[in-house]
Design a protein that fits this description.
Alpha-Beta Plaits, 19 strands, Peptidase_M20A, alpha+beta, binds zinc ion, 2 domains, single chain, metal-binding, Peptidase_M20_dimer, globular
């Protein structure tokens, strides 16, 4: 470890600590990375707390007192774990942490050791310059986000809620990064989506019951047949397009900024907009509908025996407030032979964009990119914002990066050759530092 590492070095050194999260199949855990974080912070004069949830699984939490302690606090959270990487197919070894060609390369470079490095560099800068933020800022470096947070954010919420006393809002992954879109007149507008909502993750195990018997005497109450026909009905179902408030706002601002004629009152009109917003489509489309995907089948034990029951698992993603209706539809489609239970139940979350929190994020982005169009959005998947929301903390996806003057962009999240542009990281630090100090 260098004595005074900058944000790029910190990001590279974090990548070189392999924190692959294999879920129940083990992995290295985050303890070494958490110790690295503690080391950097202690060297800067802070007193962070290392919180071990299970052997080798670790979190680091630290509160920096604000100058105005009557203000509600802000949480900034980043996860220390990463998804595993198969080195085959990578140009650069995924856990080397190489800095080359204007990028920091490696697993975690954009999800989200870049943000963790910016958080650390911000803290070290505050210590060196003797500055304090306006309000209390709690920094949480957490374990286990890439599984379900049970040993990270959720564990802290269950066992150490007092760490977040007085905290009203949080920022974490993912948002605050430029998405360029070409308008019909040929100009390029830069959109910065900031997440104000997340679809819910409900993982179902379903059981179809029926009458067991000999395979040579088929009966109409065969649970395997109930299972496949029920799942077929579910799979063929087209979930209706639903404009939740943040998505409506996102589409309004986007069509305005691009000068698009749009009819947002019909599904066809919205589909037509999707074709004209380039890469922003990926931000909008998954939040337009709830979804279901059958992921596990489990039925029968011998070819000449009709079993008494058959099972499947379904990955259900819900829109904010839509859980009850979606589950009722699933029950209707599956039919009366089915019962269900939850493997996990994390309903969707949503907060508001017409708040000083969101305004402060937008202002911070515009100070660095005056042409920025900052828009709220609903994330398709889930993050640690969900467990923190259980404490009443409004979650925003805001892990800002700057622009690379040569057009490099972050890439390879959960894929090969994950990387983050050095210039984006260096500017992102300025943006994050300024936002956290002044919000
Ligand atoms: Zn992540």
């Amino acid at each position: 470890m260098t004595t005074h590492p900058d944000v790029v070095t910190i990001c590279s050194e974090l990548i070189a600590i392999d924190t692959s999260n294999y879920g129940s199949r083990g992995g290295n855990g985050e303890l070494d990375a958490a110790r690295y974080v503690v080391g950097l912070l202690r060297a800067a004069g802070y007193d962070p707390e290392l919180i071990v949830s299970e052997p080798n699984r670790a979190n680091v939490v630290m509160r920096v007192a604000g100058t105005d302690r009557t203000q509600p606090g802000l949480l900034v959270h980043g996860h220390l774990d990463v998804v595993p990487a198969e080195p085959g197919g990578w140009t650069v070894a995924p856990f080397e942490g190489r800095v080359a060609d204007g990028y920091v390369w490696g697993r975690g470079a954009s999800d989200m050791k870049d943000m963790v490095a910016m958080m650390l560099a911000t803290l070290r800068r505050w210590a060196a310059r003797g500055v304090a933020p306006r309000r209390d800022v709690v920094f949480a470096f957490v374990a286990d986000e890439e599984e379900d947070g049970a040993l990270g954010a959720e564990w802290l919420v269950r066992h150490r809620p007092e760490l977040f006393d007085g905290v009203a809002a949080a920022i974490g992954e993912a948002g605050g990064q430029a998405v360029p879109v070409e308008a019909p007149d040929g100009t390029v507008r830069r959109f910065y989506p900031v997440a104000v909502a997340e679809r819910g993750s409900l993982h179902l195990r379903v059981r179809a019951s029926g009458t067991a018997g000999h395979g040579s005497r088929p009966n109409p109450d065969n649970p395997v047949a109930h299972l496949v026909t029920g799942l077929a009905r579910l799979t063929e179902h087209r979930w209706p397009l639903t404009l939740t408030p943040p998505v409506r706002r996102l589409l309004d601002l986007t069509t305005q900024a691009l000068g698009l004629d749009a009819d947002l009152s019909s599904a066809e009109g919205i589909e037509a907009v999707l074709d004209r917003i380039g890469p922003l489509r990926e931000v909008v489309e998954p939040a337009l509908r709830p979804s279901t995907a059958v992921t596990v089948l489990d039925a029968g034990y011998k070819y000449n025996v009709v079993p008494g029951e058959a099972h499947a698992e379904i990955d259900v993603r819900s829109l904010p407030g839509g859980e009850a209706e979606q589950l009722a539809t699933i029950d209707r489609l599956l039919g009366p032979a089915f019962t269900r239970s939850f493997l996990s139940y994390r309903p969707a979350i949503a907060t508001r964009w017409d708040t000083p929190w969101f305004d402060a994020m937008a202002a911070a982005v515009r100070r660095h990119d005056p042409d920025a169009v900052v828009v709220p959005y609903c994330m398709a998947g889930g993050t640690d914002a969900k467990p923190f929301a259980e404490l009443g903390i409004a979650g925003f996806g805001f892990s800002p990066l700057g622009l690379d003057p040569d057009g490099r962009t972050p890439a390879g999240m959960h894929g090969v050759d994950e990387r983050v542009p050095v210039a984006a990281l260096v500017q992102g630090l300025e943006l994050l530092d300024e936002f956290l100090r002044t919000v």
